[in-house]
Amino acid sequence: MTDGIEAVTRSALALALDAASMRQQAIATNIANANVVGYVPQRVSFEAQMVDVQRGMEQFGRIDALALAQVRPRIEPALDESGAAGQVQLDVEAAEMARNAVHYQALVKGLSRHFSILSMAAGDGRK
């Protein structure tokens, strides 16, 4: 197994892409069920888990690969402060879908650049 920054970078990008893909699915489900009585909107839990990984980085000076391996994006019900199910707001969901699409594209571009760097390193800097 590859250790070091390369493995951590690839793992973090893969997790973020998984979360963005899952978020797109959750948003699409919310939009499709906007008029269903009793529907509980969905959200993806991911960023809070990554904040915990970041705290470990601040504490130890590096990202712990084991802590990163524990991060799993998951779909959860979107509840308000009182624990009640919120309502789907189509304008908010559409804006969130657009934001998520841009985020996904940026992640794909970052992963592509990461692989380009690895390719260049493997080829001793030759194209």
Reconstruct the topology from this structure:
Elements: H1 5-32, E1 42-45, H2 47-60, H3 65-70, E2 74-77, H4 90-122
Antiparallel strand pairs: 1-2
Helix pairs in contact: 1-4
User: Which secondary-structure class do the elements indicate?
Assistant: mainly alpha
Q: Summarize the amount of helix as a percent range.
A: 55-70%
Structural Rg? 18 Å
Report the span from N to C terminus: 26 Å
Topology order in helix (H) and strand (E) letters: HEHHEH
Per DSSP, what share of the residues sits in E-state strands of 2 or more residues? 5-15%
Low-confidence stretches: none
Oligomer kind: single chain
Largest sheet: 2 strands, antiparallel
Q: Order of strands across the widest beta sheet?
A: 1-2
Q: Which descriptor suits the 3D outline?
A: flat
The average pLDDT value, as a whole number, equals 85
How many beta-strand runs? Answer: 2
In DSSP terms (H or I, runs of 4 or more residues), the helix count works out at 4
Description:
This protein is mainly alpha-helical and 127 residues long. 64% of the residues lie in helices and 6% in strands. The protein has four helices and two strands. A two-stranded antiparallel sheet has the order 1-2. Helix 1 runs antiparallel to helix 4. The longest helix has 33 residues. The protein is flat. The protein starts with a helix and ends in a 5-residue tail after the last helix. The model has no long low-confidence stretch (mean pLDDT 85).
